[in-house]
Protein: ER lumen protein-retaining receptor
Organism: Nepenthes gracilis
Amino acid sequence: MNIFRLAGDMTHLLSIVVLLLKIRTTKSCSGISLKTQELYVIIFVTRYIDLFTRYVSFYNTTMKLVFLGTSISILWYMRYHKVVKQTYNKDEDTFRHYFLVLPCSVLALLVHRAFNILEVLWTFSLYLEAVAILPQLVLLQRSRNIDNLTGHYVFFLGAYRALYVCNWVYRYFFEDHRVRWIPWISGLVQTALYADFFYYYIKSWKNHEKLKLPA
């Protein structure tokens, strides 16, 4: 495992810790898109279904279980916790996220590494992850009150994918010299979607201002 892969995993984990910290300490999910969280549950379930068929390492299994468990926990808080669910911005979280699932499913059936259930599901999870942040970004644009923890959560989530792109480039030059078009392109698309957010996040941090996104 190279430094970019490890840093990506830790940044991803940090984003989830920040989100859970926000929800548990403030008893609020204001500014968080339930639709993005629903997509992430779908992503992790379809990507990590190989937990039942393949063992890679203790680290790999542990991280998969952590991401599965935490994503389901966040969804439970937002949907069923008697206090947290009342703070959900339903009127602003209006992106039709189910329209993202069908195109990603069709694309996974057409473009994949191998035509079997595990490979198609893994490919589908990559395509869906590339666009899963869209409901969250749209919600932040509509919300004029972005708290620090929400901003940090989205930043770390975007940084994780950018670090994974660096990981794939590193592996190409220093390990197996294989071109992995599906994760590369999906990762680049996902990182590009964060570009605007990164700009305003860093700008607000440098100027010590509250984070605001243009409408």
